[in-house]
Design a protein that fits this description.
Layout (H helix, E strand, L loop, with lengths): L6 E4 L1 H5 L8 H13 L4 E6 L12 H7 L7 E5 L3 H9 L4 E7 L2 H8 L3 H17 L3 E7 L12 H14 L3 E6 L6 H12 L7 E5 L6 H8 L6 E4 L19 H10 L8 H15 L6 H7 L1
Parallel strand pairs: 1-8, 2-3, 3-4, 4-5, 5-6, 6-7
The protein binds 3-hydroxy-3-methylglutaryl-coenzyme A (HMG).
The site of 3-hydroxy-3-methylglutaryl-coenzyme A has 24 residues, from helix 4, helix 5 and strand 5.
Amino acid sequence: MYPSSISIYEVGPRDGLQNEALLPTAAKVQLINGLANCGLNRIEVGSFVSHKWVPQMADSAAVCQQIEQRADVRYSALVPNIKGLEQALAAHIREIALFTAASESFCQRNINCSINESLQRFEPVFTAAKAAKLRVRAYVSCVLGCPYEGTINTAQVAAVTHALIEMGAYEVSLGDTIGVGTPRAARSMVDAVSQRVSPSQLALHFHDTYGQALANIVACLDSGIHTIDASVAGLGGCPYAKGASGNLATEDLVYMLEGMGIETGVDLPQLAKFGQQICQQLGKVTSSKVGQALQS
Ligand SMILES: CC(C)(COP(=O)([O-])OP(=O)([O-])OC[C@H]1O[C@@H](n2cnc3c(N)ncnc32)[C@H](O)[C@@H]1OP(=O)([O-])[O-])[C@@H](O)C(=O)NCCC(=O)NCCSC(=O)C[C@@](C)(O)CC(=O)[O-]
């Protein structure tokens, strides 16, 4: 049975903008405040990673300090290690997202360590986050394929996801980083992971590189997962995964879910306006089909 509502976790200001041209801090702040006003109540606003690795996120502390932090919205930031956590705390962020992968090669290229080393790095982060009463989410990348290793064993995805939940993550987001998945593969990966972790603790994070993201989501909609990540205007992608286009566009996800009678709480016309605005600022055309349709 399909759920009656889905919680959308908006990643445009982080996963989107990390792979676009540099934007002024004020434009990011305007975007985040606008997304919150559209009814998006979980927004990843930036990342505390090395500025040398991802210069687009270098102003994340300023972004966190300047956004209007509404009580009804959960703002989170991506963090790779204890140094990132300290910066998130200083910026008054109450939720962090840790990230690792199901592929060794991708993990090395993305965060310069093995999967096991990444989990070791996370141990002190979980301890400090718990002491500071922060919520900790986590991502596993390359769950349906890796740009360096090709096919990834679903047992490996399940093992890494299970380890993160055991360490204290309240939710693990399953990333099809390069968007190579197709519906049957997506569903069997979710079923394999659900044998070790409750689907209520999972989220879907599907990139739309091959135009499969919505189909993959429909294939997993009755699996018990009720959180889906999406990026306004389909912005961005991961800089360490060649060919990764943006996540599924939030506008397209909202249109499909609402059309199926599944509540999202998001004001679609307003969201499409903010999608158009950010694309104008970046000098690009929106990747959202719905955004394009509502524009004409
Ligand atoms: C993880 C590191 C830092 C390791 O990088 P490293 O070089 O192995 O780390 P290090 O500890 O040796 O430190 C090297 C330098 O980075 C600094 N440093 C160390 N930590 C931090 C920090 N937290 N914030 C700011 N600076 C930091 C540190 O101070 C030092 O500075 P230096 O002495 O050279 O001047 C590096 O590899 C990195 O920043 N990688 C960025 C990876 C990234 O952001 N990728 C994109 C996001 S992941 C993604 O998009 C996928 C996802 C989540 O969306 C899901 C999906 O789609 O699959």
